[in-house]
Amino acid sequence: MKTINPGRRRFLVTSAAAGGGLAIGLPLTASSQGKAAEAGAEVNIWVVVKPDDTCVIRIARSEMGQGTRTGLAQLVAEELECDWKKVTTESITAGRNLASKRAWGEMGTGGSRGIRISQDYVRRGGAVARIMLVQAAANRWNVPASELTVADGVITHAPSKRRTTYGKVAADAAKLTPPDEKTIKLKDPRSWKVAGKPLKRLDTAEKLDGRQKYAIDLQFPGMLNAAIRQSPVFGGKLVSFDNAAIAKRPGVRGAVQVDDHTVAVVADTWWHAKTALDALPVVWDEGEGATQSSAKIAEHLASGLSAPNAYAGRSEGDALKAIEGAAKRVEAVYSTPFLAHATMEPMNCTARVTADRAEAWVPSQNAEASLAALSEVAGIPIAQCEVYRPDLGGGFGRRGGSQDYTRQAAAIAKQFPGVHVKLIWSREEDQAQDFYRPISQCKLSAGIDESGKLVGLHVRVSGQSINAFLNAAMVADGKDRRQLQGMWAEPGDAQLGYTVPNLLVEYAMRNTHVPVGPWRGVNTNQNGVYIECFIEECARAAGVDSLEFRRALMQKHPKHLAVLNAAAEKAGWGKPLPAGVHRGIAQFMGYGSYSAAVAEVSMVGGKVKVQRMVLALDCGHAVNPHQIAAQVEGSVAYGLSATFHGEMTVEAGRMRELNFHNYPILRLAEMPKVETVIVPSYDFWGGVGEPTICVVAPSVMNAVYAATGRPVRSLPMKNLGLI
Amino acid sequence: MAKLNINGKAREVAVEDDTPLLWVLREQVGLTGTKYGCGVAQCGACSVHLNGQVVRSCSIPVGSLKPSDRVVTIEGLSRNASHVVQKAWAEVDVPQCGYCQSGQIMAAAALLSKNKKPTDADIDAAMTNICRCGTYQRIRAAVHRAAEMLAKAVA
Questions:
Q1: CB nearest A393 (choices: B97, B123, B127)
Q2: Which of A201, A216, A232, A471 suits A12 as a labelling partner, its CA being 20 to 30 A distant?
Q3: Is A56 in contact with A76 (CB distance < 8 Å)?
Q4: What share of chain B is helix, strand, coil (3-state, %, to 5)?
Q5: Which domains occur in chain A, in start order?
Q6: Which CATH fold would you assign to the domain B84-154?
Q7: B6 in A contact zone (CB under 8 Å)
């Protein structure tokens, strides 16, 4: 591991927070970068070098804790050959990217794409800057560039024993014509010196003493604050509200209509706005949704398990016949609930709208979508809008394309021209108005022959579709393969790791009035549970060891198998366990990466205690093993929260779990020891933030099965008396 | 009007007595390192020290505080992030998104002020703040590391 002098790091991080590294003539961002200090030379769009050799690396993706800033900077720095200790970063704004014809590529940060989709062009960006810097030194010394070597930002001409640094040649380099980046040969990852190393994050110091400014922390002179309430019943409308009832409350400027289902109270402070909103009489037209309940939704989903018409995402051989004629048949129905994201920083957005300009400060996973939403609602041409994106207090898929809170902030700010208005959702609003992980049920049937082999498998998923919520026309025929994520035949992204001679995988779309969206791991979460817990049932029915049963089905899927074997080996699968400890295993694929887990569980007074989890991951290239391990650990916490506690239920059309007292989140005492095994195969680029979550629940459920002798077929476990 | 002692400084703030300390810190005093997470003392993102005890500032009406009560926020925990907990947090590289970490650090500092060598069970009992990114394993390691640093400093 590369060691870093903490004193030096501290200085650089502090200076990154305090000052710019912004190229001359470019607009400042209003984020934590603050005002520009010493100027630097923009060698290319990715790299600005200051006279003191500081390399400012530009980052387009959103940092929400997943470490993309550090990982992307490592990739640029690797090709740049700069001194990692002198690296700082700068976030690009959406308006600047748009004005530059999206020179920095897409900014959307979801689907675990930050590194894997950007890696090629950011590495080329670093390489182009290096070539220009070296050429500038060659020109100065009047020698061929091929005679120069470079390391840690120091350029050396050995024959004449001359040395210079990036900071000294950057201004000249910036004037050169860049080489064609397509002609550049990137480094072999096996020779990486900065990328691939378990470096510490670049953005930790600000998070230790309260300096880090999230969007919710921003203050502007004369700023007003807004608290908001949307129809608690999804699909309901705002009828009226009684502004007079709150007019005399301290600091209140008034209640305003935001859109057809939303009211906000604007006040001098958020506390005044929030308490006035609580006192505001509001009349809703709750609409048809008010008749809905979790029980009705469950019935609706159950109808899809046996309905004649379903979309056959995969049909190989004749599964129904094979199962019918098998020596042994296994059948089970599973179910998983709606889940809220519960980012620790609630939804918020600060907006300012004038006659000819609109700006927003927003924690967004998709700053370009925020910009479009701002422009549309403010009614200001997009070129006259700007979105600043402070780092996010969690994302997990909640803050992507929908940008509901940005729209609301713009609609409110429009009614207070020229004034910054900060909208903050209460935790209760955040829980009540999410885009939830879709609810589903799954019926599985299998046939096992006399030798214990799986000869037929029928999977019928019934549940809500994210695509249908986003754009019903897109999947009007019910053919929504996204809901079958992780069970696909095609290699490379979310392929089922088993070969079953007779396989039928179906999806019956059953939508509800509840808004749904991507939730860390998306459909691999529940599909991982369905497949991996049912495979466990099949293994037990066949009387075959859980690992061996899977291995027999995975011979044509070497990457899946290698990861499963890595997890099993590290966990000591098959070796004796302490009395009362039981193991469960699972493997699944999503976001271009392969995951497997072994969980060790004990039952204490009938309650589940997860002692240890070993997770293996092949994400192709491992850009920062230390941060990958952090993401794996995080996926265990997020996944176990859902496994143990997570459930949003519907009563009278609205959500019932509105704060952490009845939507409990995993706490430290429940966190098992997590061991991460990274199995990089260096022949593809896979995601990291999401992939491993899909094996967390099933491995634990299978361990509980081993412990109790009873399969766990529905989540969360709190409903089964297991927590 | 409330008279407060925050990070060693006397402050007067013009707010209603029932305003939670959290919102006084954030909106009146401008100390935004203390975070809003739930408003009902569940998550601990708003943790501060009150007379040396860790408390959840979202649920403390400012009118219940006396001018002599000492409130310490993350900004006042140490100079230059020199508290042993902050140093351990940096060494272990604990934070992901970081939003809950002010509260986690305040909770850990309070634990170590009473218990110089906490066991895992002590940490389980004291560290009840929610972290949605799931940094718990590193929080546990960092609390142990901070205890080691404390022991060395004393030795």
A1: B97
A2: A216
A3: no
A4: 45, 15, 45
A5: 6-207 (3.30.365.10), 215-287+347-424 (3.30.365.10), 294-339+436-720 (3.30.365.10)
A6: DNA polymerase; domain 1 (1.10.150)
A7: no
